[in-house]
């Protein structure tokens, strides 16, 4: 599904015998994205704000947020704004990844957070 085609979609399953099952409007594609990471760099303990759209991935809450691959405590979470605390990391730079309680994953790519000494 193309990123610009958010909304209800038809699900079509085809079995190995050729049987078809169709469910009209059976899946809702959310156009979720990260538009800002602020600050874009900092040390362990930095409060990082992530702004965007549909950051909860259609769920009511997030299960996990990672900053450069390291799980970071969530201070607040809303569909357009999430705040976390950067944790110690061996990485110099990396994406912010948000995982909702339903398993949807939103990545900040190409935006990233850079750890500074």
Layout of secondary structure:
Elements (H helix, E strand, L loop, with lengths): L6 E8 L5 E10 L3 E6 L2 E2 L4 E7 L8 E6 L2 E2 L2 E4 L3 E5 L7 E2 L1 E5 L4 E3 L5 E3 L2
How would you describe the overall organization of this protein?
A hairpin with a 4-residue loop joins β11 and β12. The chain is 0% helix and 54% strand. The protein is an all-beta fold and 117 residues long. The protein contains no helices and 13 strands.
Helix content: under 10%
Molecular shape:
elongated
Distance from first to last alpha carbon: 41 Å
Q: Main sheet, how many strands, which sense, barrel? A: 4 strands, antiparallel
Radius of gyration over all CA atoms, rounded: 17 Å
Arithmetic mean pLDDT: 91
Q: Helix count, per DSSP?
A: 0
Could you list the spans in which at least 5 consecutive residues all have pLDDT below 50? none
Total beta-strand segments: 13
Assess the beta-strand content as a share of residues: over 45%
Strands across the major sheet, in which order? 3-5-9-8
The assigned structural class equals mainly beta
The SSE order reads EEEEEEEEEEEEE
Spell out the key features of this protein.
elongated; four-stranded antiparallel sheet; 117 residues; mainly beta
